[in-house]
Amino acid sequence: MKPSPPLELVTDPATVLHQRARPVRTFDQSLRRLVDEMYIRCEEWNGVGLAGPQVGLNLQLAVIVYEDRKFVICNPERLSSSGEVDAIEGCLSLPGRAGKVRRFERVTVRYRNVHGRGVVRSFEGWLARIVQHESDHLQGMLCPERLAPGAIFQEVMDDEEEAGAK
Ligand code: ZN
Asked: What is the domain extent for residue 139?
């Protein structure tokens, strides 16, 4: 098998960031290899999440690396949600900018793991925000499309940039 080239970050404007990605259908070794590389890139780029379209892949797949957790969601579907909360968010694909984004406080999501097994899991707090941000990427939606009322997505100083989900 020929080695695949290293994954590169796609920044906006790019069509792949604005289209609904295809569901993952094949859960094989090459998917696991891809996921492993996405974990590495996500950490290297200081993200807390990285979605397929952000590395140019039209696939409903995202890795999440947050605190002590590291997992992958494939083909996520939101089953239920409650509450809402506004917080500053940024995105690796929209470098140097951030804005206040409105998200559900808690979400229950059904997805497939890297082995293709169905998982139903509830998230809250910042992890719920990351899962929503990444799931949006898989539907071709970016966080400036979810701004809180009156909020603007704008350039940030370096020290403010830390806050964002990616
Ligand atoms: Zn993002």
From this structure: 15-164
